[in-house]
Amino acid sequence: MSTIAMPPPDAGILARKADIVAALAEAIGAGDVISEEVETRAYECDALTAYRCPPLAVALPRNTQGVAAVMRVCHELGVPVVPRGAGTSLSGGSLPTADCVLLGTSRLRDVLEIDYDNRFIRLQTGVTNLSVSETVDGDGFFYAPDPSSQLACAIAGNIAMNSGGAHCLKYGVTTNNLLGVRMVLSTGEIVELGGPQMDSGGLDLLGLICGSEGQLAIVTEATLRILPKPEGARPVMIGYDDAEVAGQCVADIIKSGVLPVAIEYMDRPCIEVVENFAKAGYPMCEALLIVEVEGSQAEIADQLAKITAIAEALDPVELKVSASATESALIWKGRKSAFGAMGQINDYMCLDGTVPVSALPFTLKRIGELSAEHGLKVANVFHAGDGNMHPLILFDANRPGDLEKAEVLGADILRTCVEVGGCLTGEHGVGIEKRDLMVDQYAPEDLEMQMQVKDVFDPHWLLNPAKVFPLQASTGRRDIAA
Amino acid sequence: MADWITPKSEAGIGDAVREAAAAGTGLRLSGGGTRAGIGQAIDAPGRLSLAGHAGIELYEPGSLTVVVKSGTPLKTVTDALDAEGQMLAFEPMDHRGLFGTNGEPTVGGMVAANVSGPRRVRAGACRDFLLGVRFVDGTGRVLKNGGRVMKNVTGLDLSKLMCGAHGTLGVLTEVSLKVLPKPETARTLAFEGLNPGAAVDLFCAALRTPYEVSGAAFVGDTAYLRIEGFEIQVAHRAARLSDLFKDRDISGVEGVAHERLWADIRDVRHFADPGTALWRLSVKPTDAAAIAGDVADRLGSSVSLDWGGGLVWCAIGEGQHDQAEIVRAAVARRGGHATLVRGSADRRRGEAVFQPQADAVAALSGRLKATFDPHDVLNPGLMGY
Ligand SMILES: Cc1cc2nc3c(=O)[nH]c(=O)nc-3n(C[C@H](O)[C@H](O)[C@H](O)COP(=O)(O)OP(=O)(O)OC[C@H]3O[C@@H](n4cnc5c(N)ncnc54)[C@H](O)[C@@H]3O)c2cc1C
User: Fold this and answer.
1) What is the pLDDT of residues A321-332, one digit of tens each?
2) Same domain, residue pair A221 and A117
3) Which of A36, A293, B109, B243 has its CA at 20 to 30 Å from residue B130's CA atom?
4) Looking at the partner chain, which of A425, A438, A446 has a beta carbon nearest the beta carbon of B144?
C-alpha cells in the first residue's frame, strides 16, 4: 500500500540466520541477542509506522566493546546493521530490513562523568534526552536540545539526527551542544572524537558524524555541553487573523534585537484541535505565536515589553502575557500536546521542511493551495523563529489510497520548501521518507560526494543501507556489499 | 615563483583547479593572505587567490542570514551587519597583529580556518554559525552542501568538514552564515592580581551562573568577565556577579576602553612580539593552569587564557628547542590538543603544526583528503597531509 520501496532482502543472509545469531551470541552473550520472530517484531518500525519489517536479529550490547564485537561479526559475515536508539524517528531512520542485525542502544544506559566546573556530561548514548537534564537539574544545569519526543528519544538518535527542539533558536541544535563521541566503525574499530575541550583538532569529524543518520559509525558514548539554567522564563501568546502579518511579527521580533528562546507558530486547523484537547485558552484565529523569553523577572518584563510593542503595532486579535507559572504551563501544554491531540482525531503525516523566515507567509499560502488541490487537510505547528515548519497532513490510514495521496502531497510541500530557498528536513532527518526527494535539493555530483564520504567510513555499505541516499543513486554501492 | 591566479567567478575557480589537477601542480589558496602563516610550511608552486570572487549575495536581517562569496572582505560583511545592528556572534579573531600581515581578511579564509574569538565560550564557534557552503573540490567539481536556512539536517554535513579544513578539502566559493543581533550594551568586570589557577577558579564559578558571561579571559595578571545584553540585563548581571565575588577587588570597564580591551584579547595583541613562537592549546578549563605551568617550567613561556580557561595561548621564545614535544607532552598528560599558530618557517617545516592524531582518526582524515582532493593539489601538506 505504501510508495517507498526498500530493496529485497539478501536471500543468502536470510539462509544463514542461525549461524549469524550464534556468532552474535558468542560475541556478546545469548542474553543480549534476540532472534525469535515474536520478539524481533517489537523492533519492526520506528515512529514512521506505515513502514514495518522485523529484523533478522536484534543485538543489545552493554558497552562499546560489545558494540565493537557485534560490528566485527557483522563485518566478517557481510550482514547489514541498522542502528537504533529509542525508535522515535519520524523518517524511518531506524526501520530494519529483513536481512539486518538491528543494533540497539537500549542497554547503554550509564552516565559516566558529570563535571560542573567544565560544564559537560559524558554518558552512554542509550540514555534518554530528558534524563540528561533531569540528572543535572538539581545542580542548576540542563541539556539544551529539547525535541518534543524528549521523554522517549535517546541521545544516540539525537546525535544521528542532529535533533533540535523548541528552544534551539537560542541554544542551537545537537551539533552545537555535542563536544565529543566514542564510536565504532563498520570494521569494529573504536574511534574517539573531541572531548571535554571546546574544539577538536584536525578535521571536524565530529561535525560530520552529527546528523549522519547511522551512515558512518555507531556512536556509543557522548560528551555533551550542559548549561546553567536561566533564572526564569515566561511566554507571551499573540494571535493574528492573517498568516502574513504573523510572519511579519516574527521577522520584526528577530530584527529588534530581542532573542527569544522560542517562537512557536500554530495555524487555525491546529489551534482548533489543540484547544479542544488541552483547553489552553488559545484564541481562534489564523495564526497563533508563542514567544518565550528568559532571565530575571525584571529582564523578562523588559523583553516582553519590547515584544508586545512590536506585536501591537501589527494589530493582533489577541495578546496575552503569561502572568504566572500556571499560565505559562498551560500555554505550553497546548503546544506540546499538538502532535498527540492531532493523533487522537486523525492519522497524520508530519513533515519537517525548513524555509527562510522571510518565506514563511508565502510557503503557508502555497501549502494551503496544495492542500486544496490534493483534497487533504493540513495543519501547521512549527518553530517559526528558525523557519522549521511541521505541516501535518491529515488522512485516514484505513481508506485505501489515502496514505499514497498524503505522500504525494508531502513531497509537493517539501519541494516547495526547497524552491523558496529552504530544505527537505530541519530536524527529523532524511531516513527513507525523504530519501528519493534528495535529488530535488542536491545535484547528482553533490550526492555522489556525500556517498564518497560514506565510502570512507563504511566501504562495504553495511551501516543503515537504503536510507538517506536515493535508492537508485546508491544501487551500485549497496550491491558491492551483497 | 608563479603569479597569483585570481578568477572572477566560481566557474573560473573550477577551471583553475581542474588545470592544476591535470598538471599535478599543487595550489596554495589565499583570500586576503592575512592568515598565510597558519599551517605546515608548504611548497605548492601554484597560487590561487579568491580575492576576485567577492560580494554579498543575500542579506536578510529578519532571517538572521547572510550569504557571501568567499573572497569578500570580512569588513564588507561586518559593515553591512553593523548597519542593521547585527553581528557575527563568534567574534572572529583578526590575525594581522600576530603575523604582521596587511591585507584584508576574507570570509572564506575565516571559515576555512574556523576562526572564532572570545564570545565562543557562550555563542559557539564559526562552525556553529555556518549554514552551508559551495566549494570546488580537488578535481574542479563545483559542489554544494547545506543551505541558507537555520535548521537543516538534509544529508551529510560536509559544511562542518570544510570549516577548519584550511582549504585542504575544497576551495570555498560561497558561504551562508547565521548572524545575531548585536547586544545593546556591554560591561566587563576586571579582577587584578591573579595567577592562571585563580583565574580559572573564578571563570568556573562565573560560568556556572545564569548570568550569561560572554567573555572570560585572563591576560597579564588580570581576569576579565564580560556581560552583554540590554541595559537592564547588563546592570542586573553585573550586580549579581559582583555580589558573588564581593570579597575581591573588582573594577569595571565600559565604553570605548571596553571595546578596545576585547578586540585586543580577541587578537591576542599581548603576544604580538614576532620574536616568540605562539601555541594555541585547547583543553579542559580546570587543566589549563597545570598545563601552562608545565610548559612554563620547561620553556619559560608566557601565558594568557580565553574561553574561561578552555583556550590557552603560550608564547615561547623562538630560541627554545623541542617546543612541540614539550607542549604536547604537557597536553597529552591531561587531554586536549595544541596547535602552533605562529612560528618561523623552519619550525613550521620541522615540527607538526597541528596536533598529531590517533591512528584511526588520522587514517579517516587521510582517506577524506584523498576523496576530496585525489590529485593532492589543494594546499597540499598544510594540515600535515
Ligand atoms: C511525537 C514526536 C515528536 C518529535 N519531536 C521532535 C522534535 O521536536 N525535534 C526533533 O529533532 N525530532 C523530533 N522527533 C523525531 C525523533 O524523536 C528524533 O529524531 C530523535 O532524535 C530520534 O531518537 P531515537 O533515539 O528515537 O532514534 P531512533 O529513531 O532509534 O534512530 C534515529 C536514527 O539514528 C540512528 N541511530 C540510532 N542509534 C544510533 C547510534 N548509536 N549510532 C549511530 N546511529 C544511530 C538510527 O539508525 C536512525 O537513523 C519527534 C518524534 C516523535 C515521535
Assistant:
1) 999 999 999 999
2) yes
3) A293
4) A446
